[in-house]
Write a structure and sequence with these properties.
The protein is an alpha/beta fold and 372 residues long. 27% of the residues lie in helices and 23% in strands. The chain is built from 10 helices and 16 strands. The strands form 3 sheets. It has an 8-stranded mixed β-sheet, with helices on both faces. A hairpin with a 2-residue loop joins strand 9 and strand 10. The two termini are 39 Å apart.
Length: 372
């Protein structure tokens, strides 16, 4: 009868996630839950996020309790119908615990790779998945990195090859950013695609990365299959320079945390480890000058230098835009007045990071446009 019992397991969010803490259940034993319903809050070393149920059914038993930390793939709870008695559930849980073996391949950190795009200049990237003629290429924003897509890349890699890059000036990539403008960054991303033999891709760009993605689609239209732009630059002149300048200058955890919290609607999701990783990144040789050049070229005098939204009229590929209504970095009002053929997705109680704050909803729409 154990075939009538369905497990709910600790998810894997991000390439390096090995374990997670179940902060708090949002449902009760005995509740009927729906697939996609938020049922618990889970904390990793990167972020705290709502966990959405992978199934529908009756939640019969909590196995992992509030405050407990367990490995990826461990049993959190079980769902079963009323005709499954408690003894069967006891046996199922006991057998699971007795036979649980940590999947080192699933729990361990995947390794990024590096490719030279120009003499002496390299791009670090992470690739996952396989299949599909046209891969997904994720392009992060100012101060980010490929791991900004920790809640998206793996989920979207089931049927498609995916690539997430560290842009120049970021992460493990070259700290040379050319003139530091969007065109220079676009040229380097295009060089990456050329070297990697990516002839055409579905571009997913966040903030600065959204502007780069749109610029690439405009300049190299035959190489872009679709555009998913998340709170992109280039749709208006406003930008919060308190965040930009604070990200560059703040070196102490407490003050930097106040800056990073501007990214999200709910700052409790920002973990101390995330802040420490940003501090370590900023200590790398060349990072400070690279970020300053990007700021001074893309956001001179406290405003965005390039307006790109008029290019949407010329797009011949499917395109969609995502924005949090409570975005404190680039206002959601920049999504107003776009061409009707551009789908605009606005989210309440969401800040500048819809791909993390509303990951499942955003993933579903990216999957739809990429598999369309």
């Amino acid at each position: 009868m154990s075939g009538n019992i369905e497990p709910i397991l600790m998810p894997k969010w991000g390439l390096a996630m090995e374990e997670g803490m179940l902060v708090e259940w949002q449902v009760e034993e005995g509740d009927t839950i729906e697939k996609g319903q938020e049922i618990a809050d889970i904390e990793t070393t990167k972020i705290t996020n709502a966990f959405e149920s992978p199934m529908s059914g009756q939640l019969r038993r909590f196995v992992t309790m509030d405050g407990e930390t367990v490995p990826v793939g461990f049993l959190l709870a079980v769902c079963a119908e009323d005709d499954v008695d408690d003894a069967e559930i006891d046996g199922y849980v006991r057998d699971f615990k007795d036979n649980f073996v940590l999947d080192e391949a699933a729990a361990g950190a995947a390794e990024p790779e590096t490719v030279e795009i120009l003499p002496g200049q390299s791009i670090r990237y992470m690739t996952m998945g396989s299949g599909g003629a046209e891969p997904i290429l994720f392009v992060h924003g100012f101060g980010g990195g490929f791991d900004n897509w920790m809640l998206n890349q793996e989920a979207l890699s089931e049927n498609l090859q995916t690539y997430a890059v560290d842009l120049p000036g970021h992460g493990g990539s070259t700290k040379q950013v050319g003139d530091g403008d969007l065109a220079s960054m676009t040229d380097m991303l295009h060089s990456f695609m050329t070297v990697m033999k990516i002839e055409r891709a579905h571009l997913v760009g966040h903030s600065m990365g959204g502007g780069i993605a749109l610029d690439l689609a405009y300049r190299y239209p035959s190489q872009v299959a679709s555009l998913s732009l998340i709170a992109p630059v280039g749709f208006g002149s406003d930008i919060n320079m308190e965040y930009i300048d604070g990200f560059i200058t703040q070196t102490r955890a407490r003050k930097l945390r106040a800056v990073i919290e501007l990214l999200v609607d709910d700052p409790t999701g920002i973990s101390p480890d995330m802040i420490e990783e940003i501090i370590k990144y900023k200590r790398l040789d060349g990072v400070g000058p690279a970020l300053e050049r990007l700021r001074d070229s893309i956001m001179p005098n406290g405003q965005q230098a390039r307006l790109l939204n008029d290019r949407l009229d010329d797009l011949v590929v499917p395109a969609q835009v995502f924005w949090g209504q409570n975005d404190k970095i680039i206002p959601a009002s920049h999504a107003e007045g776009l061409p009707e053929r551009i789908r605009v997705n606005l989210y309440d109680n969401t800040g500048h990071m819809p791909h993390m704050e509303r990951a499942n909803e955003v993933n579903a729409l990216i999957s739809a446009i990429a598999n369309g």
